[in-house]
Design brief:
The chain is of the alpha/beta class. It contains ten helices and eight strands. It folds into two domains: 279 residues, Rossmann fold (3-Layer(aba) Sandwich); 41 residues. It comes from Phytophthora infestans (Potato late blight agent).
């Protein structure tokens, strides 16, 4: 089983994004749960106000339950706390508290996370607001985190998962915060994505293309260059090139990174799928491939390696890989 986690900013400015995540979960249920793949969906919401830091965490292995829950989520209202109204307050948000919530999840389960937000986190060097103080206290009280530097929080999460986690960041509005979010994505082998427009359907369509390609790849499929209607949804996203990005040891050094620049969508996405395949392995597939296809499996790996190193043309590699995958499936029917 793998855990697909959405860390969702539910402050007042995120109405389109919340609607997009709701649509994404609905599509996921139709395409993943109905295929009986072993997938858990976790929704972590975060918001804040001058009255407190609010983070919630709900996980689902049944599609209908996931849909019912995400339908019930409202802006500024932490799930389970209907009397609370928390619109975000000071501008920056409590992403540190949301990311720290990953420490409470099963670290043995391969986890692919999407942090979706439109604002930066509270930084220690900035003026302390009520909201920032609430987050610092929250981290101490719930997670025993005394050093609330973002990079320390990330280091604790990374140590918890031991390479079993990928974090992707969907960040609206390019500004200096992209440096921090580039560091987060880089640290966890993810991607930094900026939607070009704030529209629910386009967010849902783009996320579903990414997820469907990831699921297909992990289940033994291939990443093709064919231009389909679904792939056009990726055109509404900017995929940033983080190849030269460095991850500092503390917040103060994040500024030494350049503002990330747009990369080639296919190259960035292919690299992400490659990393996701390593993390997830065969734990997404309905059933493992038996040893009877060992020869074909080895040949498939060689074919992939030859394609990646340029020793075999893409179309030839695709044809050979397709034939091998079909043969492996036949051997294990």
């Amino acid at each position: 089983m793998i855990n697909l986690v959405f860390l969702l900013d539910i402050t007042g400015s995120m109405s389109s994004e919340l609607a997009g995540v709701k649509e994404t979960v609905r599509h996921l249920v139709a395409s993943v749960f109905e295929e009986e793949y072993a997938v858990m969906i976790t929704i972590i919401t975060f918001t804040e106000s001058s009255q407190g830091c609010f983070v919630t965490n709900h996980s689902f292995t049944e599609g209908d339950e996931a849909i019912d829950f995400i339908k019930s989520v409202q802006l500024c209202v932490p799930p389970g706390n209907p009397s609370v109204s928390a619109n975000g307050g000071d501008g920056d948000e409590n992403q540190k508290a949301a990311l720290a919530e990953l420490l409470t999840l099963d670290n043995t389960m391969p986890t692919i996370a999407f942090l979706i937000t439109d604002a930066g986190p509270h930084l220690l060097a900035e003026t302390r607001t009520c909201e920032a103080e609430h987050e610092i206290n929250y981290l101490k009280e719930k997670h025993s985190i005394v050093d609330s530097d973002m990079l320390n929080v990330l280091a604790l999460v990374q140590a918890h998962y031991e390479g079993n986690l990928i974090v992707n960041v969907v960040k609206y509005i390019k500004n200096s915060d992209h440096r921090m979010y580039g560091c987060i994505a880089k640290k966890f082998d993810g991607v930094l994505i900026e939607p070009k427009v704030r529209a629910a359907q386009q967010l849902a369509s783009g996320l579903m293309v990414i997820l469907s390609k990831m699921f297909d790849r992990c289940a033994g499929g291939t990443f093709t260059e064919d231009d389909t209607v679904n792939d056009a949804a990726l055109d509404t996203f900017i995929f940033y090139d983080l190849e030269e990005f460095t991850v500092p040891s503390g917040e103060a050094d994040v500024i030494h990174n350049y503002l990330p620049v747009a990369g080639d969508t296919r190259d960035v996405l292919f690299a992400f799928l490659d990393r996701a395949t390593v993390v997830i392995g065969d734990r997404f597939a309905k059933r493992a491939i038996a040893a009877s296809g060992l020869k074909e499996q080895v040949e498939l790996l060689i074919t992939i390696a030859q394609c990646l190193t340029g020793k075999l043309g893409y179309n030839d590699a695709l044809d050979r890989a397709t034939t091998l995958v079909e043969k492996i499936h036949q051997l294990n029917e």
